[in-house]
Amino acid sequence: MVYQSRVLDRQLDELITVAPAIAIEGPKGVGKTATALRRAATAWMLDDRDQRQALDSDHTLLDAHRGTVLVDEWQRLPHVWDAVRRRVDDGAHPGSYLLTGSASPASAEGTHSGAGRIFSLRMRPMALHERGLWKPTVSLARLLEGSAEKIEGTTPLTSRDYFEEITASGFPGIRPLPPLYREDMLEAYLQRVVDRDLPDLGFTTRRPETLRRWLAAYAAASSTTAKYSEILDATTSGDGHQPTKMTTISYRDHLTQLWLLDPIPGWSPSLSPFARLQQAPKHHLADPALAARLLNQNAETLGSPRGAHLAGPLFESLTTLSVQVAAQAARGRVGHLRTRNGDREIDLIIEGRAGQVLAIEVKLTASPTDADVRHLLWLKQQIPGHIADLVVVTTGQHAYRRPDGVAVVPLALLGE
Q1: Chain segment 80-91, per-residue pLDDT in tens
Q2: Any alpha helices (H) in 90-244, and if so which ranges?
Q3: Per-domain residue ranges for the chain?
Q4: Helix crossing, 308-329 with 7-15: angle to 10°?
Q5: What pLDDT digit, counting tens, does each position of 208-259 carry?
Q6: Cα separation of 222 and 315, whole Å?
Q7: Distances (CA, A) of 365 to 129, 223, 316
Q8: Angle (deg, nearest 10), helices 159-168 and 308-329
Q9: Under 8 Å CB-to-CB from 37, ≥6 apart: which residues?
Q10: Hey, what CATH topology would domain 7-122 get?
Q11: pTM, whole model, 2 decimals?
């Protein structure tokens, strides 16, 4: 399979010149190993029992070769993390170690956090602008800098194309497959989480179908701030069986360890605090394709009355994934805004390191109206000196700036 360049490649090439050890973390299948192998002189693949046993018995093997050493799936041998940390403390050169992990270890007892020694880098499924469908013309980094004066560009993509991308997934090994086989692979991915990945973390459920129902309920809550108690209520089966609150908390914690949940936190402005902001997270799975599969949706159903209620939330999830990838490269923090009484909501808030704010609304429409931008303009009135830009992401074909200053950008034209 031909390697597709990722936004993280540029981040990694920059960091590897200054950081002795870098951990690339994210869910299985996002491309961590392929990305790391391109920079490694030596690779220890810890899903191989023989290699795992060899490194477990002799940590000095980490020093046996020159160049960058990759430890893949390091969580299978957690004390390797400490071994690398000690080498950093002893003066390891920049670019000495890469660690990739698709889960936090089942037990981190005795393992140092690595703070200040090992740089952690999150890798997500492929953003839309990484998939090569269309060349973006609007840079999120420039929007965040407040320097994107000219908003322009045209794309032929329509809502149907976005529905295809929602269900195609951002997993490099799955998206090129024929649609039906792709659905089978996503089903297998979810099943492996239940049958293998969670037990590897020390978590085994007596009722796998209940976990699957909870995951589907979480998927149905995509792009909302639904209370976890509401998600729990939606998990009740036809026979009246419902998992306990403690059980679902365990689901959430272990799925977070696998990087499968990627919620957006409530925004807490650093420069101009608001008194009435709600801090509940907005729910998202790591890839909207997983949500679509859990809910038995494909591109055709999302474009029909049957799936219309899910089309908007899953389009927002796809947009959120793309914004998360681009914002990470721009060193921006991503949150969402919602007042406690729900009268003001903004889908995505990106805050830069200088406190500047880029506010984004996501609309499943080709032509946003004045009503679609009213909360953006309200925010500008609240913190006029801190707004870098205001954006509505759409399914339209043209990028432009409205007379009120709000940028209208089709998702296909939004890049890093």
Answers
A1: 999 999 999 999
A2: 140-145, 159-168, 179-192, 198-200, 208-220, 228-233
A3: 7-122, 128-415
A4: 20
A5: 889 999 999 999 999 999 999 999 988 876 656 788 889 889 999 999 999 9
A6: 10
A7: 19, 17, 12
A8: 70
A9: 43, 70
A10: Rossmann fold (3.40.50)
A11: 0.94
